[in-house]
């Protein structure tokens, strides 16, 4: 019996052992499957990581390529900017007129163009020259587009005026017609305008003149070029001027006046008072020119206060009073220099006439004489209403962000484009070139003035578009 029981126990133990072994094998098999599945997932993840790393590398390569191209473009832009700056300096060198008896203005205009063509290797400019005359012969229509892009004073106090002309020359001798541009560092805008018009020459049903005008700041440039025939051969029908304006205002505003005087006249005068010099201890032996000049000064203020129509804007400023070399010497002469400005033609005639009469008669009253020399003589700038509104309509066709009209502007400053506006229907506009931050704190003739160059493509686009639309 005992043996039988022992055998049963041993058999039962064997069965249990077998059962446990089978369970372990099943567990190991399951773990192996999970392990292999995990390895497969890891492999799949590694493939995806490699693919993503490859994409990242491609993106990095593309980024580096873009950076390199950007640096190359910036380098080319820097070289182009430097070349244009050199052109600007060359043109300023030849177009700034201070003493009119040194060179004829027309000769100086010619010199500036020759120098500019040389600087630009005669490539684009040569292709532009004389190209629009054939269209004029076909259609008989001309436009004088005076692009007053920027009457700028540079930091060293010089300024030049360019007038864009279809062959980029400075005088009608080059058989081109029309207009101009103020600028000191904005030559690239007018060059861009000329290039765009040249590229679309087939669309122009007339002639566009580009004219480089010197001596705008002394109010002599446009008058001289009119005298030399800039409005003739072929005859000019209309003129458009843009003038950039700095200050604390955003780029995109354009200001104009189609209903009244946009800018005042200017009549600069030089009065030389002649008396008789003497020692300061013996004034009875003199005819004191300083005393005479002082009386002339106050008498001129009375002309403004008592003789002008108060409904008109009139001013007379004496900015220079010069006499004597020593405290105890009464000199022989005294000099007054000033400016008369008004928005009314009749008031202008009155003020100029009375300034001369007052100076001469006041000097005679005290025993001296007065000699008056006119420094500048420019009428008020009055734009043609219909043509101005037509140009405004053309500008509104352009898809330029934040291009905003500001009508009815008027300024007591003066502009020698008024000489052109007296001859042909004209429009004159200010294009804002300011900054909203501290860079916009300074006015146009301040040596710290800064102009926002974002105005350049706007000016070029407006000029090219308006010229094309007007001629069509």
Task: Outline the structure in words.
The chain has 472 residues and is of the alpha+beta class. 45% of the residues lie in helices and 17% in strands. It is built from 11 helices and 16 strands. Strands 5-16-6-15 form a 4-stranded mixed beta sheet. A 4-stranded antiparallel beta sheet has the order 10-12-8-13, covered by helices on one side. Helix 1 runs antiparallel to helix 2, helix 5 runs parallel beside helix 11 and helix 7 runs antiparallel to helix 8. The longest helix is centred in the first third of the chain and has 94 residues.
Describe how the helices and strands are arranged.
Blueprint: H1 2-95, H2 105-119, H3 124-128, H4 133-139, E1 142-144, E2 161-162, E3 181-182, H5 187-199, E4 207-209, H6 221-227, E5 239-245, E6 253-255, E7 261-263, E8 266-274, E9 278-279, H7 289-307, E10 314-323, E11 329-330, E12 333-342, H8 345-365, E13 369-378, E14 381-382, H9 385-396, E15 404-406, H10 418-421, E16 426-432, H11 455-471
Parallel strand pairs: 1-4, 5-16, 6-15
Antiparallel strand pairs: 2-3, 6-16, 7-14, 8-12, 8-13, 9-11, 10-12
Helix pairs in contact: 1-2, 5-11, 7-8, 9-11
């Amino acid at each position: 019996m005992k043996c039988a029981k022992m055998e049963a126990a041993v058999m039962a133990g064997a069965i249990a052992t077998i059962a446990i072994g089978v369970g372990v094998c099943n567990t190991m098999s399951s773990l192996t499957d999970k392990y292999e599945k995990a390895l497969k997932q890891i492999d799949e993840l590694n493939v995806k990581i490699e693919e993503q790393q490859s994409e990242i590398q491609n993106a990095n390569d593309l980024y580096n390529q873009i950076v390199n191209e950007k640096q190359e473009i910036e380098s080319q832009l820097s070289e182009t900017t430097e070349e244009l700056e050199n052109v600007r300096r060359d043109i300023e060198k030849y177009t700034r007129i201070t003493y009119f008896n040194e060179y004829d203005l027309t000769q100086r205009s010619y010199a500036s163009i020759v120098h500019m063509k040389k600087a630009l290797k005669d490539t684009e400019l040569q292709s532009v020259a004389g190209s629009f005359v054939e269209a004029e012969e076909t259609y008989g229509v001309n436009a004088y587009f005076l692009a007053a892009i920027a009457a700028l004073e540079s930091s060293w106090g010089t300024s030049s005026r360019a007038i864009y002309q279809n062959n980029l020359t400075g005088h009608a001798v080059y058989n081109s017609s029309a207009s101009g541009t103020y600028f000191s560092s904005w030559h690239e805008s007018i060059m861009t305008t000329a290039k765009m018009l040249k590229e679309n020459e087939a669309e122009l049903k007339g002639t566009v003149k580009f004219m480089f005008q010197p001596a705008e700041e002394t109010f002599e440039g446009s008058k001289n070029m009119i005298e030399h025939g800039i409005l003739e051969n072929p005859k000019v029908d209309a003129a458009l001027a843009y003038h950039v304006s700095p200050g604390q205002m955003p780029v995109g505003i354009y200001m104009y006046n189609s209903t009244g005087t946009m800018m005042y006249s200017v009549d600069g005068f030089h009065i030389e008072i002649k008396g008789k010099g003497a020692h300061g201890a013996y004034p009875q032996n003199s005819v004191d020119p300083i005393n005479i000049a002082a009386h002339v000064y106050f008498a001129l203020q009375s002309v403004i206060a008592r003789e002008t129509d108060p409904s008109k804007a009139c001013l007379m400023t004496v900015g220079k009073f010069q006499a004597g070399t020593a405290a105890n010497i009464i000199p022989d002469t005294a000099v007054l220099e000033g400016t008369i400005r008004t928005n009314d033609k009749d008031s202008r005639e009155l003020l100029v006439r009375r300034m001369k009469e007052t100076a001469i008669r006041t000097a005679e009253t005290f025993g001296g004489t007065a000699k008056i020399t006119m420094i500048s003589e420019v009428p008020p700038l009055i734009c043609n209403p219909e043509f101005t509104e037509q140009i405004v309509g053309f500008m509104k066709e352009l898809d330029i962000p934040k291009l905003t009209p500001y009508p009815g502007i008027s300024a007591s400053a003066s502009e020698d484009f008024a000489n052109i506006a007296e001859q042909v229907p004209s429009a004159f506009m200010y294009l804002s070139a300011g900054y909203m931050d501290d860079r916009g704190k300074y006015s146009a003739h301040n040596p710290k003035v800064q102009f926002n160059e974002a105005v350049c493509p706007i000016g070029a686009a407006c000029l090219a578009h308006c010229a094309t639309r007007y001629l069509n």
